[in-house]
Amino acid sequence: MRLAATLILATGMSAMAQNPVVQTCYTSDPAPMVHDGTLYLYTGHDENGADFFWMQEWRVYSTTDMVNWLDHGSPLAIEDFSWGDDRAWAAQTIERDGKFYWYICLHSKLSGGMAIGVAVADSPTGPFKDAIGKPLFDNGSWDNIDPTVFIDDDGQAYIYWGNPEIYYAKLNKDMVSIDGEVRKFEQTIEGFGAPSFKKREKDKKYKDCYTEGPWISHRGDKYYLLYAAGGVPEHIAYSMSDSPLGPWTYMGEIMPLSDTGSFTNHCGVVDYKGKSYFAYHTGKLPGGGGFGRSAAFEEFEYNPDGTFPIIPATEEGVKPVGFFNPYRRVEAETIAFSKGVTTEPNAKTGVYVADIHNGDWIKVRNVDFGSGGPSKFAVSAASALRGGAIEVRLDSVAGPVAARVEIPGTGGWEEWKRFETDAKIEIPGVHDIYFVFTGRKGPKLFNSDWWEFKK
Ligand code: FUB
Q1: What pLDDT, on the 0 to 100 scale, is given for residue 348?
Q2: Which atom in ligand 1 lies closest to the alpha carbon of residue 44?
């Protein structure tokens, strides 16, 4: 137990932490989407040690239980847009008629400002490609960031974006062209807590003010525009309307300022498995901060009148909404929480867990071993050096060992070999499992691609 506490403390997070939801890299500007029973999380990617938002790519994660997240890597990056050269900033994905449209913003080589673009794929995890080979909207303005989209019940799709103005337009059914004019909401004190940026009086204290990062959603006949507000540092506030095009009424804060370690915030809202979730970002991953942000989730309930409650940022995050089946091949990059490891892509085998050192670990939560428990544990691993071992421990990093498998050198970091060992769980049923990596202190030990238990 003492060892468990020491190792957890080494990550700077409590044993029950579920936020931030990804620990293998920084994941900013979260945009959740539910499709076919799975919740997908689209994020930006802040670079390690960055001194600005030097962001190169977007990433995708998915979950079916809200706690174990599968890393799908980066199916979209700056180089997928011939017209863009910098700043892969906030984005959102939406499905229509079996196609997935990822609305992004990028610095435009064509105009020198920021521009809105759209990529398309046949699956929520890609491969994505630039849908039109040019920006969807590009007028040389730096305002063109943070697109958010939705399709109303009558089939009309809308797109909104902007900092510090809020632009909006109708999308045609093809989802890759704008129907009519791009317009701007007139910001007022009643609508957004303050007038539009240019009309604000210097030194006047307003109720609030729209800053950036809009997120549009609707429930029943109510439309919600959530946004980062208050200038820097940002909190999250919202406005409501009876129509997707306003007029809007400022409703107050949702996530007030708190010690998130990030001067920006950026939200998304989604319903999944009968619960409502609020996604946002913080600088709380060790080494993170204003330019090293990470996605987090909180569960919430709408007030009876349809308004938002105040949602505080927590380290605990959300509870599981399902059990995890270990009796199948599970990608090693399926992670509830981890310490030390990262992930890398390989064209043949996809994403795998890399950078494994002595003392690192991966936790998978709420694993249902059933009544009999497993008899075998197998793993696919590769090492160009001397390898190491994986201990499968139950319920904590120092918990009982259910299996231990030695990984020798395999002749290369992507020379995958399967290793199998006996597995025994004295008390079957539901456990959190920890893959604790051991080996020589100092060097990288091995990479891991997948694992499975057998009855
Ligand atoms: O991630 C870069 C920028 O920071 C986003 O576009 C804004 O919403 C803010 O989160």
Answers
A1: 83
A2: 1
- Please calculate the CA angle 75-77-81 and round it to the nearest 5 degrees: 115
Residues whose beta carbon lies within 6 Å of some atom of ligand 1: 28-29, 44, 53, 89-90, 145-146, 212-213, 264, 266
pLDDT per residue as tens digits for the range 3-17: 233 333 344 556 678
pLDDT of residue 4: 33
Where does residue 133 rank: exposed (0-12), middle (13-18), buried (19+ CB within 10 A)? exposed
In angstroms, what is the span from residue 55 Cα to ligand 1's centroid?
10
Reference 102, options 41, 165, 155; nearest CA is 41
pLDDT digits (tens, 9 = 90+) for 340-399: 999 999 988 899 999 999 999 999 999 999 998 999 999 999 999 999 999 999 999 999
Q: How far apart are the CA of 268 and the centre of ligand 1, in A?
A: 13
Q: How much is the average pLDDT of 109-123? A: 98
As a whole number, mean pLDDT of residues 207-227 equals 97
Please compute the mean of the pLDDT values over residues 293-309 and round it to a whole number: 98
Which atom of ligand 1 is the closest one to the Cα of 90?
6
Q: 110 and 135 in contact (C-beta within 8 Å)?
A: yes
Amino acid making up residue 303: N
Residue 297 tokens read as 């989730």
- Sequence-distant (6+) residues with CB within 8 A of 295 are 20, 21, 22, 27, 28, 30, 41, 43, 279, 280, 281
Ligand 1 atom, smallest distance to 87 CA: 2
Secondary structure (DSSP) of 228-296? EESSSS-EEEEEEESSTT---EEEEEEE---S-S-S----EEEEETTEEEEEEEES-STT-BTTB-EEE
CA of 30 to the centre of ligand 1 (A): 10
Which of the listed residues 46, 47, 53 should we mutate to test ligand 1's pocket, taking the one with most ligand atoms within 8 A of CB? 53
**Residues ≥6 apart with Cβ < 8 Å to 347:** none
Centre of ligand 1 to C-alpha 305, Å, is 31
Instruction: Name the token pair of 175.
Output: 């989802």
Helix (H) or strand (E) holding 391: strand 388-394
The Å distance, Cα 266 to ligand 1 centre, comes to: 7
Residue closest by Cα to atom 3 of ligand 1? 89
